[in-house]
Amino acid sequence: MDNSNIQQSFYEKTARNRIASIVDKNSFQEVLKPGSIPVSPNLASLDIVGSFDDGVIIGQAKIQDEPIYMIAQEGKFMGGAVGEIHGAKIVGMLLKAIQEKPKAIIFLVDSGGVRLHEANAGLITISEIMRAMLKVRNVGIPIITVIGGTNGAFGGMGICACLSTHVIMTEEGRLALSGPEVIETIKGVEEFDSKDRALVWRVTGGKTRYLLNHVEFLVEDDVTDITQGIVEALQQPAIDLDLAYLQQQQASLQSQYDKWFGEKDSIPIWQSMNIDNPESISMLSAQQIRAIKKG
């Protein structure tokens, strides 16, 4: 039986399997291997079992023979939440990239945000990741973030994802600041019903983010499609992170805010964008959505 055309789900894989499925065969070399660092003392003090890698894998590899750095969050450990050691590994890899100049950093984000069990340590770590990401971009090294895991990119990691040079999303991926459960808890179910999964994906999912130009690439939940998206991003020209660029991005976001503030679903937004049959968007493939955007 020929299995070459069978789709391999990125969503269903562990972080280590995601890395192995994307990089050149046998090219990944892990930094700070399991057992080489202590587990989180903050979790231990709360009688919570830690993880040998604290929920994030870092290392170097190649994609189509191009040297890259890899950072992959394990969403199955505490929802990929960022704690002190978890964040220190990410920051260390980012700063190491500034010294060694890889072609790019590939960041597989799968996180609900800060690990509240670690309180201020987790919040400080997010700010350190943000600062390190900006330093990396400032020296011309692109950061390519992939969002397609079980937890999406929320909270502090939602902010970090948006600091990337390029963002690749699948329909299954989600990107936002506050998660659906947080909004519902604070504002009530009338504001946002977190149990309405179709609504959650329409509002925070990859299709909406792509159509609104919040992310650059929309791909299928397939490691081959995701790898191709990474290769295309690697070929993109460098983006100058200057004041003019930031002002342009801010103006675009302000325009969207002025048009659609108060909308509680994406369907009326798609309709106002003159998309035919906006109710059908959720049923379309990534390829069909890309065709709609191209017009």
UniProtKB/TrEMBL annotation:
GO MF terms here are: acetyl-CoA carboxylase activity; carboxy-lyase activity; metal ion binding; transferase activity
Give a GO cellular-component term.
Answer: acetyl-CoA carboxylase complex
Q: Which residues form the CoA carboxyltransferase N-terminal domain?
A: 1-242
Return the Pfam families for the record: Carboxyl_trans
Q: Quick one: a GO biological-process term for this protein?
A: malonyl-CoA biosynthetic process
Q: Which domain of life is it from?
A: Bacteria
Q: Which controlled-vocabulary keywords does the entry list?
A: Metal-binding, Transferase
Provide the protein name: Malonate decarboxylase beta subunit
Organism equals Psychrobacter fozii
